Amino acid sequence: MTTAQQPAVSLEMAREFGLSEGEYNNALEILGRQPTYTELGIISVMWSEHCSYKSSKKWLMTLPTTGPQVICGPGENAGVVDAGDGDAIIFKMESHNHPSYIEPFQGAATGVGGILRDVFTMGARPIANMNALRFGAPEHPKTRHLVSGVVAGIAHYGNCVGVPTVGGETNFHPAFNGNILVNAMTVGVAKADRIFYSAAAGIGNPVVYVGSKTGRDGIHGATMASAEFSEDSEEKRPTVQVGDPFTEKLLIEACLELMETDAIVAIQDMGAAGLTSSSVEMAGKGGLGIELVLDDVPMREEGMTPYEIMLSESQERMLIILKPGREEVAKAIFDKWELDFAVIGTLTDTGKLVIKMHGQTWCDMPIAPVSNASPLYDRPWEPTPAAAELEDAVRALPADKTLGDILEKIMSCPDQASKRWIWEQYDSLVNGDTRFMSGQADAGVVRLPGQSKGIAVTTDCTPRYCLADPVRGGAQAVAEAYRNLSAVGALPLAVTDNMNFGNPEKPRIMGQFVGAIQGMADACRALDFPVVSGNVSLYNETNGEAILPTPAIGAVGLLPDAMIAVGIAFKNEGDTILLVGEGTGHLGQSLYLREILGREDGPPPPVDLAVERRNGEFVRGLIAEGLVVSSHDIQDGGLLVTVAEMAMAGGIGANLSGLDGADAGTLFGEDQGRYVLAVRADKAAAVQEKAKAAGVPMSVLGKTNGTALTGRGGEAITIARLKAANEAWLPGYMAAAE
Amino acid sequence: MKAAVIVFPGSNRERDAVAALEAASGTKPHLVWHRDTELPKVDLILVPGGFSYGDYLRSGAMAAHSPIMREVKARADQGVRVLGICNGFQIITEAGLLPGALMRNAKLKFICRTVHLRVENTDSPFTAKYRKGQIVRYPVAHGDGNYWTDAETVKRLDGEGQVAFRYVSDEGDAAPRWNRNDWNPNGSLDNIAGIFNAKRTVLGLMPHPEDAVSAFHGNTDGKPMFDGLVEALS
């Protein structure tokens, strides 16, 4: 080991880098000496929460991750499932919460860039993007600026790379005032026998760097993402990376072109902790060593140190292990796309990470002992106490409000109001393969390029349920994803999870995490809906205030033909409106309770997984037989809100004679496992017979008719009125700043 | 009909264009890389949408100087039909095939939605299959679609039948001149959505007929454009 000029390492410095004293001592023991400055930087990011999953791993291991449809579960850049006929679907959801709060435009943009790379690095052409966003209270002074920046950043990146953004969800709650959530999901398609993995192989094989040049941006971003925010978080702006979607688009095309040759042994994107995590993970998975010569790394700035190069999170970069002698083939492709290409090292048999620059050695440490020693914690946790049931009296509709006023209020509240202002900024149509996008169906639907086969994509979570009961909330998020896929007619395949929580060192928060995982695991098992990829974002707290627990679920389903997919819009006058499933009038944690009665209490609705499965299978069966005209699952806001959305989407009203005399529980209860369907009147009897035969509860709500919701004995509520209320809130809110 | 689709770094709607052309003509169009200097013999050159060169400098400005554009201009001069859609409209305008400029949308945001257009002139192979005054629905997806030119040019465009499409309301109402209202998605001058050159052999438009050609799209209003081209150029 040469003595290169580097700052002296101390425990104090290790603490600044986010290591605990125990972790630092462990590093001393493994190396048998003081780490160099560069080594300390590398160890600190490898052992950061963000890269090591040290608080969450014990519990993530309890999720079901296998099934006949799974080609590759968690552990790779993204999950891979079988879509039949030799096609594979590759997908993942990932958070970019901390950077997006500090610099919303670039934070969100690079979040999209990162998740795209995770998917195309495995050989998939990205075909759909989604995003799940949570912001603070609308009246919080930062919220408007954050909504504006995040949405513009997602649009900037996703639109330019030419991947349609086909859906997502957006919530507002004061608990996100200091920590917003930006969870981005990408779905891609590949041939099942042409999937690329990250494990390096072949001693002496060249290690190749492609993409953008390396700069000083994002150094220690992974460490930032592993700590709570405080007043001075603004000062962390330099740790946010800057994205270039144009380079990403070229990188997608160049990588996919290279993947058509046989030149690649292994490939991985440089995400969090950049060159450090990519080189260490690739060599580590292959049980090999790796030697890098950093003089050969394409650099954007002069005078960068090995420490800076190894920890930079500059975007749009990939690390590739090539077969020997294929450098020229590969270089020609990257030259064509005008991207940097450099051989920066070789694989070795030493099991060590060796970093050289300026003729000196800056890092020489064993990979496996450091990786394997990355700490694993069994953090203490407390179960969340059960919420008291609501009193029966809440079921009575208030005497001082008309039903129209109540529905209007719910349709225009920030969580329920139309998010058109957001999704019209996303190109949802590029590629010409989009069947359904935001506002048209319960899931986004795209067909595979050049095929009629389709996939459905959804993201779901109800954070207020998770706060009240993490176990139920976790199960509900998975069940809702299952329902949203079933509602369009797609067979649910698998799940990606994006676990957003507060500080896991607090037993109450750790209890939320443990509870959510338990609920998710139960639901995934019961629904044959395994988790194939995921991401954990902890420490979402500011000055000790944690976010609502948000285990966001992204899920993918398969349609034999995208054209069979059914949207939410009423299509014809006189169709019969049917309710699938039955409710108990559960108002705990409902939007009705919060928006009309001003209360946020009670338990969230229970989830009966056997019922979810039975009802989901039944609805998919009806859609496959072509019996369903319109389909919408019942979620936020309950039955009447669901019917109102179907009416607004189609511009056709409904006569709801089946709801005569219904109370608030029936109209607005958020009981799970339910769907509203519209079928042609002459098919209604046959559909009801099928329900009876399948043991599925079904009732007639009424028929599609006119331009208003009528026939419950009360006043007519016009679609125009509901639409105005539903569409006005977000544009009005955003315009108030302009 | 033989067609070529030009691909620049950052183009992203070339697949949509290829699919629409192939569906209408039964022939796969040539994909031509921007650094090529020669074009195959074709009846139609399509410059597709996307973000050529990342929209750096100005949308379409850098692509307009790509090697292949010299050849595109030469062919256009010979009367070969050229169709520029979205970023393609920006590129051929920057290259001087059409007058005017495309500026940032009036509301400064990217916008993706289906809009209503009125077909203003059917005396071209691009629009021959429509009725004059017909209202059609095409999607738009752009951030820089705000067409502008000087007063004299706009008068000429109007007088000589060079306006191909205008944004109108869903009921087909033409707005008063200069009206920046909700159904004009970008604030374009005179509600212009697409224009011809003087000979009506070149069409540039912001909306995407290629994403409205099948039952799958839930919209077939763009199909007559491609059918018309095939009929005229085969």
TrEMBL record, chain A:
Residue sites binding substrate per the record: S95, H96, N97, H98, R117, Q241, E313, S314, Q315, S537
Active-site residue list: H50, H96
CDD domains (UniProt xref): PurL_repeat1, PurL_repeat2
Pathway(s) where this gene product acts: Purine metabolism; IMP biosynthesis via de novo pathway; 5-amino-1-(5-phospho-D-ribosyl)imidazole from N(2)-formyl-N(1)-(5-phospho-D-ribosyl)glycinamide: step 1/2
Keywords: ATP-binding, Cytoplasm, Ligase, Magnesium, Metal-binding, Nucleotide-binding, Purine biosynthesis
Entries under Pfam families matching the protein: AIRS, AIRS_C, FGAR-AT_linker
Name of this chain's protein: Phosphoribosylformylglycinamidine synthase subunit PurL
Native source organism of the sequence: Azospirillum brasilense
Record gene name: purL
TrEMBL record, chain B:
CDD domains assigned: GATase1_FGAR_AT
Matching SUPFAM superfamilies: Class I glutamine amidotransferase-like (SSF52317)
Any Pfam family the entry gives: GATase_5
Catalytic function, reaction form: L-glutamine + H2O = L-glutamate + NH4(+); N(2)-formyl-N(1)-(5-phospho-beta-D-ribosyl)glycinamide + L-glutamine + ATP + H2O = 2-formamido-N(1)-(5-O-phospho-beta-D-ribosyl)acetamidine + L-glutamate + ADP + phosphate + H(+)
GO cellular component terms listed in the entry, alphabetical order: cytoplasm
Keywords: ATP-binding, Cytoplasm, Glutamine amidotransferase, Hydrolase, Ligase, Nucleotide-binding, Purine biosynthesis
Source organism superkingdom: Bacteria
SMART domains: GATase_5 (SM01211)
Cellular localisation: Cytoplasm
GO biological process: 'de novo' IMP biosynthetic process
Pathway(s) this gene product operates in, as recorded in its UniProt entry: Purine metabolism; IMP biosynthesis via de novo pathway; 5-amino-1-(5-phospho-D-ribosyl)imidazole from N(2)-formyl-N(1)-(5-phospho-D-ribosyl)glycinamide: step 1/2
EC number(s) given by UniProt: 6.3.5.3, 3.5.1.2
GO molecular function terms attached to this record: ATP binding; glutaminase activity; phosphoribosylformylglycinamidine synthase activity
Active site (catalytic residues): C86, H208, E210
Record-linked NCBIfam families: FGAM_synth_I (TIGR01737), PRK03619.1 (NF002957)
HAMAP family in the cross-refs: PurQ
Function in brief: Part of the phosphoribosylformylglycinamidine synthase complex involved in the purines biosynthetic pathway. Catalyzes the ATP-dependent conversion of formylglycinamide ribonucleotide (FGAR) and glutamine to yield formylglycinamidine ribonucleotide (FGAM) and glutamate. The FGAM synthase complex is composed of three subunits. PurQ produces an ammonia molecule by converting glutamine to glutamate. PurL transfers the ammonia molecule to FGAR to form FGAM in an ATP-dependent manner.
Quaternary assembly: Part of the FGAM synthase complex composed of 1 PurL, 1 PurQ and 2 PurS subunits.
Stated name of the protein: Phosphoribosylformylglycinamidine synthase subunit PurQ
Species of provenance: Azospirillum brasilense
Gene that encodes the chain: purQ
